[in-house]
Amino acid sequence: MTTFTFDKLVIFGVGLIGGSLARALRERSGAARGSRIVGVGRTRASAERARELGVVDDIASLDDDTELAAALAGADLVLVAAPVAQTQPLLARIAPFLEARTIVTDAGSTKSDVVAAARAALGERVSQFVPGHPIAGRESSGVEAALPDLYVGRNVVLCPLPENRPEDVARIDALWRAGGALVSTMSHEQHDRVFAAVSHLPHLLSFALVERILSAPDAALKFSFAAGGFRDFTRIAASSPEMWRDVCLANRDALVEELDGYTAVLAMLRAAIVAGDGAALEAVFARSREARTQWQERGGRASGHLAPK
Amino acid sequence: MTTFTFDKLVIFGVGLIGGSLARALRERSGAARGSRIVGVGRTRASAERARELGVVDDIASLDDDTELAAALAGADLVLVAAPVAQTQPLLARIAPFLEARTIVTDAGSTKSDVVAAARAALGERVSQFVPGHPIAGRESSGVEAALPDLYVGRNVVLCPLPENRPEDVARIDALWRAGGALVSTMSHEQHDRVFAAVSHLPHLLSFALVERILSAPDAALKFSFAAGGFRDFTRIAASSPEMWRDVCLANRDALVEELDGYTAVLAMLRAAIVAGDGAALEAVFARSREARTQWQERGGRASGHLAPK
């Protein structure tokens, strides 16, 4: 149904995220017919695997001015799909070769820091940058793990800047919808508050539980009796330490606010336990159970009140 | 391989836990050949379903002195499989009919409170009570959910009292092993510290996260973008509010100590985030990931250092 087409898409970082969008465009939607997809890596070798797998048509090295200029020449779309901490140096590296017609987007899981990085790296040309965040992933990473249907039915959040042209935002919206995603927009501040609450804080809490158990003299005994509840609760504590370090620092303000609010809930529950106030505990537990059950029954994601565009 | 046999087992509360042990003894091990299993409910009707399903041979009502006396006459084993808050009234009700030869055990998920309840209800005859905790469950409850293999390969913790006769502890150990379980022993204080850390605290934290999100004005927006990490982290927030209220109050001291230790870890992580100390965050996250991964690789439960008896 999509009529989305493009001339040339340049992907910086052809791993799971960038590679899956490339595969979706080529294999699912036909959007890439007659188009070129270029993969750029830190070296040519790091992008070579993506070309071998047929995920991209051409490759270039970030370190080579000539290759980088050739990669960006005539590009209508650029996707930065690298760890958020690399956004500013990457955009600064791209800036001298960026044509006025090119729209740049990213896939970072935090947005306020990415906006600040884009302003610092691009100056007035930040108008060409439409911040984005696909809510999708797999346990495995790298271009070998890329899937053409990774984004099907998943949320992508765009956080348009006041400087963005509406038609540029619409192009990035169409790009992700061509990949099968449901696209929503919100401010970068709201994005970061939402994901601090439903993603970043849970990861921090999960890591913290394992750390707490590890700190006990009888840690081995405790682990040996951990069962299903522990398994579910701590599954996300097996996530990448580097990525979550970066996310915690990149989304510092919203995460600390969320953590403080959470700590206040714990203090309230502690007081109820100490006071033997079973009614207060049961009220909280019942309310949480009801909300969690409803969320699960809705299919565990967006429904209705925030209509996908 | 088991040579465990018994004359008469009386189960107070023939639901998932008690019903599964009865089915295991009858259907798995042959231990029930020539034996009687009696189910006791609050009324005769509540136990009737267990007899219809062939899980027990006879039933009795807790409210009827004559039936209760007949049920306990000649019993060598009694299992109390009711919510922990009912332990004391149940044992007080049983006490007048308890023969000197009968060994009583329970299946409560907290132990210090159960020991206190047993001392209060049984007095000197607490020597006949061997506290126990099978670490097994299902999402569904009731005797219809009972399974003959619910305990196969699962941990059962016994918390023997100084007053217990070693041969009585050995009988309860053999009872659970006849059901397929791995049996360990520890003090009731240690049991409650271990399960506060690996089960009770995670449940509290999971309920608290949903409560925190619910308290936000944009709760609906947040839920709509919650994804896999949230799903795993909050699965246990769909647990029974009544049960977890009782567990939190029954294991108050150990849980508050564990919660305070956990809150201290959160404060340390908060300080690292505010200070921008990425190295400190990464060190905690990497240590947690390593421990969580090793736990998973060991099969997610007991291994080696605490040899099952």
Verbal overview:
Two copies of one chain form a homodimer. Mean pLDDT of chain A is 93; it is low at 302-309. The relative contact order of chain A is 0.11. Helices cover 50% and strands 12% of the residues of chain A. A six-stranded parallel sheet of chain A has the order 3-2-1-4-5-6, with helices on both faces. Chain A has a three-stranded mixed sheet with strand order 7-8-9, with helices on one face. The longest helix of chain A has 27 residues, at 188-214. Chain A has two domains: 8-186, Rossmann fold (3-Layer(aba) Sandwich); 191-297, 6-phosphogluconate dehydrogenase C-terminal fold (Orthogonal Bundle), CATH 1.10.3660.10. Chain A has 309 residues and is of the alpha/beta class. In chain A, strand 5 (103-106), helix 5 (112-122) and strand 6 form a beta-alpha-beta unit. Chain A has helices at 16-28, 44-52, 65-72, 87-94, 112-122, 166-178, 188-214, 219-224, 228-234, 241-250, 252-275, 278-297; strands at residues 8-12, 36-41, 58-61, 77-80, 103-106, 129-130, 132-134, 155-158, 182-185. Chain A is elongated and about 70 Å long. Chains A and B meet through helix 7, helix 8, helix 9, helix 10 and helix 11 of A and helix 7, helix 8, helix 9, helix 10 and helix 11 of B. Chains A, B: InterPro entries: 6-PGluconate_DH-like_C_sf, NAD(P)-bd_dom_sf, PDH_C, PDH_N, Preph/Arog_dehydrog, Prephen_DH. Chains A, B: Pfam families: PDH_C (PF20463), PDH_N (PF02153). Chains A, B: It comes from Trinickia dabaoshanensis. Chains A, B: This is prephenate dehydrogenase. Chains A, B: Its EC number is 1.3.1.12.
